[in-house]
Amino acid sequence: MATEVYLVRHGETMFNQLNKVQGWCDSPLTVKGINDLKRTADALSQVHFDNMYSSDLKRAIDTVHLMKDANLVSDIGKIKKLPEFREVFFGTFEGDDINQTWDQVAMAAGIGHEDDITKIINQVGLHNFREATKKADPRHLAENTEELDKRMVRGIHVLGDLTKNEKRVLLVTHGDFIKTLSIKYWNKSDGKHDIIFPNNGSVTRGILHDDGQFEIVDYNVDAEKL
């Protein structure tokens, strides 16, 4: 049985609002974030889900409970948290200013001062961007391409095992994780260059096939437009 996967990005957080790097570190949802999520939850309230899952980070857990509480046609039990679907890990840069961080990454990538992540990725490629992030990190803890790719593939396998008898599920995860997953599994991406960053509360829809193959079929869609 193929499983339809609604990947929902968590709502806006305090670190999003403050333009800080937020990977495995966490910050609370803002009032705006909660209000935006209520619109997403309302738009999905009549969509039947066999189950709901989330990353194990609190901003994702808080988001999935908003989705669960608003849904009128699904009988969802305890939410299972999946660490494989955490946000990308940025190591020592966690909590730092985003623009300053990308400037350091650009310098490590050898292209000089640049704080626009899209320009950096499109100039050096996503693989080299991840390698430069790890290189620029003073402790070299940030996830590189190989580490992140292994985690994404492992996440798909874990989700496949969990959803063998489920036709449609909702999974709350994170912006850079959804973007990187889509660069890998969406046929509208070439696998190298950047794509638009998904909005808070947006839905990216994937299909997990019987043979374990995964594909993205809709990316960064407002729930009202699904």
Automatic annotation (TrEMBL):
Keyword Kinase part of the UniProt annotation: no
Keywords carried by this UniProt record: Hydrolase
Alphabetized InterPro entries for the sequence: His_Pase_superF_clade-1, His_PPase_superfam, PG/BPGM_mutase_AS, Phosphoglycerate_Mutase
Keyword Nucleotide-binding: no
Domain of life: Bacteria
Protein name: Histidine phosphatase family protein
One Pfam family per UniProt: His_Phos_1
